[in-house]
From TrEMBL:
This is UDP-glucose 6-dehydrogenase. Substrate binds at residues 155-158, 228, 273-277, 344. The active site is at residue 284. It comes from the Bacteria. It comes from Paenibacillus hemerocallicola. SMART domains: UDPG_MGDP_dh_C. Its EC number is 1.1.1.22. NAD(+) binds at residues 30, 35, 85, 122, 158, 287, 351. One of its GO terms (biological process) is UDP-glucuronate biosynthetic process. InterPro entries: 6-PGluconate_DH-like_C_sf (IPR008927), NAD(P)-bd_dom_sf (IPR036291), UDP-Glc/GDP-Man (IPR017476), UDP-Glc/GDP-Man_DH_C (IPR014027), UDP-Glc/GDP-Man_DH_C_sf (IPR036220), UDP-Glc/GDP-Man_DH_dimer (IPR014026), UDP-Glc/GDP-Man_DH_N (IPR001732), UDPglc_DH_bac (IPR028357). Belongs to the UDP-glucose/GDP-mannose dehydrogenase family.
Amino acid sequence: MKIAVIGAGYVGSVTAAAFAASGRRVTVIDSDPRKVERINGGRSPIYEPGLDALLGSVVGRQLLTASDRYDSISEADAVFIAVGTPSLPDGTADLSYVSAAADSIGSAINPDRFTVVVDKSTVPVGTAGLVASRIEERSGLKRGEAFAVASNPEFLREGYALEDVFYPDRIVIGTMDPEARRILKQLYRPLLERHNYSSLADVIPQPAQPKADTIYFETDEGSAEMIKYVSNAFLAVKISYINEVAKLCEAIGADVTDVAAGVGLDSRIGSKFLQVSSGWSGSCFPKDTAELLSASRKYGSELTVVKAAVESNRGMHDYCVEKVRRRLKSLIGKRIGILGLTFKPNTDDARQTQASVIIGSLLELGATVAVHDPQGKAMFQALNPNLQVRYCDTGEETANGTDALLLLTHWEEYALLDWKAMRQRMRTPYMLDTRNFLRTAPWGEWGYEYEGMGIGTVR
Ligand SMILES: NC(=O)c1ccc[n+]([C@@H]2O[C@H](COP(=O)([O-])OP(=O)(O)OC[C@H]3O[C@@H](n4cnc5c(N)ncnc54)[C@H](O)[C@@H]3O)[C@@H](O)[C@H]2O)c1
Ligand SMILES: O=c1ccn([C@@H]2O[C@H](COP(=O)(O)OP(=O)(O)O[C@H]3O[C@H](CO)[C@@H](O)[C@H](O)[C@H]3O)[C@@H](O)[C@H]2O)c(=O)[nH]1
């Protein structure tokens, strides 16, 4: 079977590599020639643990090539669309990249063979129909005859993308076309059965925990498209809930870590996504909650729970700034060090990260800010040209002369810093750990004033 994947970003490059590792011949198409060149050189276009080695292996075995041309579409049994769907200013999803990809597929599709076009991008209900009409317009073909369209949302998490694509909880397929269902089931069989993995054992990660079998779930296009948004919004609501509980724990005199652990022991609730933070962020939750909310309003059925989570989340960013302001009295002329610019560890993705909001507020309140991130500096700098901050090469340098350090992202590298020595670099030894990541260290002994999140003084 031959596959084409359009878009070599966080989803497309991982998807393409996983299909190639399961024995398919894959072409990944991207309009950015730098990404194409990197992949053809056997290197990852993004920072994602394990992806360099996997791409090196499948490119080396000639199972995967990259191109900026669409020629390979004419030979593909399945074409996956994995281009970006960022937010427009009104919160709705920008479908211009998906539309452009559909047009290019329409121009290149082979009328003499059946092709299933699969939407892996996160898109609103109805987009499968839009993709089909654009292909019909360009090609003169009829949906259901020479081609079909399916929705196959992706659920991978950045930083764990390989584990998530090789051992997913579920694969959701949205199409009522029987031929498309047959092709996709055949395509996913090696990943479902995990039988090809042994030959690539050196480049496919072992899951941290034993993984249950993957559920293969078939439905219609619209329901599949909806499943993706509802899943992301559900997770965002869950985090917002525990973050609000953290604030209450501080006020009432309880410890949110224990509260979350105890609550999560109920198997109906589960322990995942109950980690307190300065708020959820990144390239998915903010845009996907915005699109879902906007769709719910359009159809007169506003999802007020999601609306509350979005508002609460912004409040969480502000709460962190307020904690620092309260401790330092005023921020005018104060020097703040920020550890972590990405929305979570093990990624270089700095799109819509909470760090940009928090830093913006600190600067507005008169502070000067020094920042560090192990991987996210380049993207953060490119996306936030107006934030006047000093970029540091190390965590140690970030601490120099500061009145407060804020740990925003729990990179493992920050656990390894010599915190005792870091204290000597600071002007005022105040540390706000927004993830409760380093809370067990002997901060008092080292002369710090340490604050976590949601750790109230027990009365
Ligand atoms: N990032 C994630 O963790 C994640 C997880 C699940 C789902 N998603 C969804 O998957 C989609 C892709 O997200 P991403 O983070 O991989 O985006 P991305 O921006 O990292 O990658 C998109 C790629 O598509 C390329 N591209 C855009 N238009 C093109 C065209 N017409 N032809 C060829 N290439 C084109 C871009 O150059 C870019 O490399 C989004 O809808 C997103 O919501 C993302
Ligand atoms: O207990 C938690 C878990 C996460 N977060 C934060 O929530 C955000 C999102 O985290 P995560 O979901 O791990 O990252 P993503 O890579 O954005 O993955 C989400 O978004 C993807 C894109 O749609 C989906 O594919 C994934 O299933 C979904 O988890 C980040 O800011 C995290 O720091 C918390 O604050 N507490």
